[in-house]
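RETRY 2/3 - previous attempt timed out on the joint model. Re-submitting the same 521-residue input unchanged.
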Amino acid sequence: MISRAFRGFAPAVVVGVGGLAFWELSLLIIDPEGFVLPPPSSILAAFNENFEEIWVASMNTGFIVVTGLIGGVVLGVVWALLVSRFRLANETLTPLAISLNAIPIIALAPIFNAWYGLLSPVSNQAIVVILVFFPVFINTTKGLTDVGATEIELMRSYAASSWQVTRTVRFPNAMPYFFTSLKIASSLAVIGAIVAEYFGGRQDALGPLIVQNAGLTRYAEAWAAVLAGSVMGILLYLVSGAFERVSMPWRRDAETIGA
Amino acid sequence: MTDPDRCAVEISNVSKVFNHGRPNEVHALEDVSLTIDEGSFVSLIGPSGCGKSTLLRLIGALTHPTKGDMSVNGKTANQARLDRDYGMAFQTSGLFKWRSVTENVELPLQLMGWSKTERKDRAAEMLDLVKLGEFGDHHPHELSGGMRQRVAIARALSFRPSLLLMDEPFGALDEMTREHMQTELLDIWAKTGKTIVFVTHSIPEAVFLSQRVIVMSPRPGRISSDIPVDLGKRAFETREAPAFFERVTEVREALRFEESSA
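RETRY 2/3 succeeded.
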């Protein structure tokens, strides 16, 4: 059992360790002073030394990421439900969603700061919400509406009500689409939060930590904060995947039985 | 006019035009009349575009006639749909992948508000009927194509409709599975006494299954021949009997005649 699990992970571990070793060793030759890129060993050392500070910053950024992610996902799903259910909503809210998405959202950060106050978390949360909502909205709408003609005719042959069709066909059909978007959204949320923090919000967060350290040419420390952001993104991705597996037990593979 | 109590389906002078009045207007059916007796097995056959699927959908009130009158079980087609008078099976099984085999068969019953135990009992009974009693807990992707179609038939019959509408249900199966499924369908028909309207592309399939083969021709879709098939109780040997080949030839000639005159 353990060896089978290991065999599943082994290629990723080999590639990861190999990549880090290559990074470490090649820097010894081309950039021994570590001006351009610090070696993984210095980044890890910086991570350890500044663990307390990085931990606090990660918690603060994590709060923005998680609240913004939840807000954006709820908004995206509700928006998708409206658009797929009501023609009028589709004709008005879909163009609005596309327009919102066309705005360079990060560019709004200074404006939001002006609205909510430079140190307020609300402007950062708002940026994460807007960034996250669009992929959730687009994918979920697709899943709610992309139901085969046979399935719809079948439900009509049972004289099923519109709500019955939604509940028994559209919702389950939308699940894989929704979870795909959740995985995309979880990484976007981290990116959005950190970039938004460059412009304002709490100063003891990952964004300011990266900016300050990079400004002081403390690159290893800056990279250590980046590492914390990556770990956060990976954790959220894994959590999304876990939700997906629990919610869609029928997707777990099983072999086809012969005729 | 036949006694409406004995007629499952009555269609008189029905026409169906899609995209009426637009440049892409299609005359799917023109002036079609057909009566189907209760308890009979009738096949609709014809080349693509002859309107056989449209005719089946008209009976199921999944689309509505542009002109003409029709009744199903003595009521309007739409009332018959609302009363759940028919079950339907398609070329693709249309099983829901997130539901187990049992849950798929239970779906119509669930929509009709049956209790959990009633649903369970009926689903088990139906799966026994299509010889899949042991597969209730499997999911559709674990089944072969033939098994999936059997689940779809069990589902269509689960609420005991008097009429079964089938749109090329065996069209995607290999020849051997197909013949096997035909025998099973006749078995189910004998046990349940349903009226079956069966759309197919296959001449031997139509002849083997039905008491009547309705031959249709395209542009515009219409009924060109109505061929009675009296082969008695079907058996394995039926497919090799001279009478079977005579009927196959008759249907083929009817189809060819339509082709050359078109």
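Chain A has one domain: 39-249. Closing ticket.
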